[in-house]
Amino acid sequence: MNRILHALRYGILGLSLSLLLVPASLEAADVQQKKLLLGLIPEMNIFKQKKRFKPLGDYLAKKTGLPVEFTILSRYGNIIDSFKTERMDGAFFGSFTGALAIKKLSVVPLARPVNLDGSSTYSGYLFVRRDSAIKTVADMKGKRMAYVEKATTAGYLFPLAYFREHGVTDLNGFFSETIFAGSHDAAVSAVLDRKADIGAAKHSMWDRVKQENSRVDEELIILAQSPTVPSNGLCVRKDLPPTLIAKLKEALLNLDKDPEGKKVLVQFGALRFIETTAGDYKPVFDMARNAGIDVRTYRYRNE
C-alpha cells in the first residue's frame, strides 16, 4: 500500500509540473512575436507613403492582434539586406525586389492590391519632353537619363532591357549623365523640370503625378512601355508562424467585404487585394534575363 501511495504521490507531482510547464512554453512562444515589422519601399514621397499605409497597418493590427510597425527605407534599394538586418517579418516589395526576395530570401508572397483602374499589375514607361528631338534610342546618346533605383522594375530593369534589345549593350558612356532619382514621382519631375532628358517610372505613379500636375500631359510624352508585372505586394518571411500568415492573408483578401476595410481601401487607393504567388513574378524574371541580369547573383547598392 505504501508503495502504491508513493507512486501516486510522485505521479501527481510529475503531472503538476508538466501542467505548469505547458503554459510557460506557450507563453514563451507568444512572447517571441510581439509585433509585426513590415518594410516599405519609397516608391513615392516618404511622407505620402506613411499616410497611405497607416490605416492599413491599423486594420491589420486589429485583425492579427499584434501591433503593426512600418519601416520605410530612405532609398528604394538595399531592401534585401535591410530585410535581414532589421529582422523584418514582411515587406511590400516592388516586383523586382519581390523577385529578388523570392530567390534570395525564400519569402512567401501573400497578396497585392488591385489598382483603381481595375488592374493588379503595372507597366514601366520610358518618357521624354515633347519639345525634345528624342524619338529613338539613337537620339538618346549623349543625353541625361533619370532612373529610379537599381532595384526597380519600371525604373531600372525595364529601360536596361529596352536599351539592350535596341542594340545598346554597354551603357557606360552612352549617356552624358545618369541620375538615380530615388522614387518614381521624382523621376517624372526630373524630366518635367529639365534636370534630365529621359526618364523611367511605373505607370501607376505616372498617373498619380499626372492627376496632381497637368504639366505631365502637356509637356511629356511616352516613348515605350514595358510588359506588365505584379503590383507591389506583401511577402512575408518563410518562418513566420503559419497561423499569423493565414490571418494576414485573410485580412487582406477580405478588405473589400468589410465596411471598415472598404474605408481603408479608399485611403490606400485600391479596389481590393488579390492572392499573389511566386509564379506571378515570371515576367520580372524574363525581363531580368533580357537585361542580362542573373537574379540569383545580382548585387546592387544604392548610395
What does this protein structure show overall?
- This protein has 303 residues and is α/β, with parallel strands linked by helices.
- The chain has two domains: 33-120 and 230-290, D-Maltodextrin-Binding Protein, domain 2 (3-Layer(aba) Sandwich); 124-226, Periplasmic binding protein-like II (D-Maltodextrin-Binding Protein, domain 2, 3-Layer(aba) Sandwich), CATH 3.40.190.
- It contains eleven helices and 13 strands.
- Strand 1, helix 2 and strand 2 form a beta-alpha-beta unit.
Q: How many extended strands?
A: 13
Runs in which pLDDT lies below 50 for 5 or more consecutive residues are 1-31
Mean pLDDT: 86
Give the CATH superfamily of the largest domain: Periplasmic binding protein-like II
- The dominant shape is globular
Number of DSSP helical runs:
11
Outline of the structure:
This protein is of the alpha/beta class and 303 residues long.
Topology diagram in text:
Layout: H1 2-32, E1 36-40, H2 46-64, E2 68-72, H3 79-85, E3 90-93, H4 95-105, E4 108-114, E5 121-122, E6 124-129, E7 144-147, H5 153-165, E8 177-180, H6 184-192, E9 198-202, H7 203-212, H8 215-219, E10 220-225, E11 229-230, E12 233-236, H9 242-253, H10 259-268, E13 272-275, H11 282-290
Helix pairs in contact: 2-9, 2-10, 5-11
